[in-house]
Amino acid sequence: MSRSFHQPSLSAPGAPSPDVAAEELCRGWYEAHGVAVYNYFRFHVPLQDVAEDLTAETFLKLVRAADQFDSAKGSARVWILTIARNVLGDWHRRARLRQYVSLGAMHDLVCQAPSPEERLLREEEVGRLLDAVATLGAADRELIGLRYGSELDTAEMAHALGISEGSVRTRLWRALGRLRGVLAR
Question: What residues have CB less than 8 Å from 89, skipping those under 6 apart?
Fold first, then answer.
């Protein structure tokens, strides 16, 4: 009697098993864009764990929707960030009933094992920046998150937001001006 074991799937338990090719495609997308998606969420949510969960949820949705991707309509990166925006919107709707306590700065972005003093200074700077970003309006936070959290260029941002590149540049410039004003206080 032989037993066969299957490789773990990216799909959720109980969900229909997606095509193996779709899983492989999504693995490639995760390797190429996972950090950008995580950083996008980290700009918008109070806790590292929540950003990680939302990133995982985004890629689970990608596995299920991989056959819907159309490269003629835009890049995979923009499509993935559009799905991430939808996941974030869903989270905000669900989170109205929850309350999170932020533990402070973004210690998860620290790399190359800096000294404790350097880490503390970085955490204070990042915390100050995130606090300043949090005071901005939703549209400004979205623009800044897409540009600096997800590192989208203006063309990708324009596609994701459904506006012109010129509008993206103008709105981003104004949002950064408002952010500078908050930081100058």
Answer: none
Mention every residue, 6+ apart, whose C-beta is less than 8 A from residue 124.
Answer: 105
Q: Are 41 and 141 in contact (CB under 8 A)?
A: no
Ramachandran sector of residue 12 (left: φ over 0; alpha: ψ -120 to 50; beta: rest): beta
Per residue in 105-162, pLDDT (tens digit) is 445 544 556 677 887 788 888 888 888 888 999 999 999 989 988 888 999 999 989 9
Q: Are 119 and 144 in contact (CB under 8 A)?
A: no
List, in order of start, the domains of the chain with CATH numbers: 15-100 (1.10.1740.10), 109-185 (1.10.10.10)
Q: What's the pTM?
A: 0.52
